[in-house]
Amino acid sequence: MSTGRTHLWALWKRLYLQHWAVTNISVTDTPQCCLRFTIPGLSTDCFDGDGNPNIESIMKISGISRVYFFDQPLDDSGKRFLDFNVILKDRLLFMVSTHFRMSKLLYNPDIPKWPINGHYSLSNVGNSSLTDQISFYSPEITSEPLWTQRCQLVSVNNDTRQPSALPDWFQDKYKGKGGMDKGLAVMPIQRPLNTYSYPITVQWLDTDGFRHTNFSSYVNWVLNAIYSSLSKQELEPAQGSSSSAFLPGVTRAALSRGVKDLQIRYISESLENQNLNVYVWQEESQKNTFFASVERENLQVCQLQLEYFD
């Protein structure tokens, strides 16, 4: 692990993770590697103006839970889940794609969401990548998760930032211990000529500890673009070829039903003060789905597909 990353991890762990109330930790190795735990759930700032859990909070709870177990000893022997402490000594795990599935339970105000139970499992191991899955459950309902996230992580050399094969011992130990025959694939999408365009400048609050844009900021920008289009249509209904006409499914009622499915491809990185364009559009046959491409000077940085409940 590089010096900068080591310092950042130590600071983050000291300031936050060591005080996180994670309980009921247990691990099973068969039929697949799975870690179970309980964490504090959704606090009051995790809900949006419609009273729904906001997607940024869902993403960050998932991400922090994953990172917590990268370095958290599971017992007195110092063992870590999936030997993350060993493989991360000389490489990064870069998230290239992710897929969130939300249940209607997540948006039901009568379903308690504090605390919540997590299931973190291995899904697939390739030569230079792995797929994992993390699901969260209400303490009162164990039959269906509130939400599930799958991640495709690529092993990257610390110095060259190029893909690097996972160690042979890791592949020998964990291949076949996941629940998927192949890794997560989020397909590229082709941006059409006519879209709703929303320019943004990356701000400091959009970045993470490495000063790159936070993985959840892209979703916030897309949501802001969708609501920007909605506001413009409410002031002046879209007609003809106006840019807001390219989001025909936008209504406050539709957006208030909550996000059902979110797929993201992380293609490149962006930094503070860089100017980006967020392009959002819909397909005629998919009124509840929004497609988005975040670009810098026509270079694709991130692509998203966002579906709302009916």
Automatic annotation (TrEMBL):
UniProtKB keywords: Signal
Which stretches make up the Acyl-ACP thioesterase-like C-terminal domain? 199-230
Please indicate if the UniProt record lists Signal as a keyword: yes
Q: Does the keyword ATP-binding apply?
A: no
- Tell me which Pfam families the record gives: Acyl-ACP_TE_C
Using the record, list the residue span of the signal peptide; answer none if the entry has no such feature. Answer: 1-21
Question: Entry's PANTHER family?
Answer: ACYL-ACP THIOESTERASE
Q: What is this protein called?
A: Uncharacterized protein LOC106054842 isoform X1
